[in-house]
Input
Amino acid sequence: MPFLSTIEEFAEAKGEIKGARKNCQDNIIKILANRFDDVPELMSNSITKIDDMLILENLLLSSISVPSLEEFQKLIDAELQQN
Output
């Protein structure tokens, strides 16, 4: 049964990564909503489509101090163009 446990471990690790990604996406949207009252649906959809944790972590940090939603959208666009 070691093969099965290896598959289970892989699935568990993949689930943890997926959960961390979803959590980061949700936190970005919550922070922006708290700061700016309303996050456009297009922006929320863009955030939830990002899979790269490094990009999400950068956006999470930026969401705390970005001066406007327009500036945040520019950051999203810049991050996506780099990758």
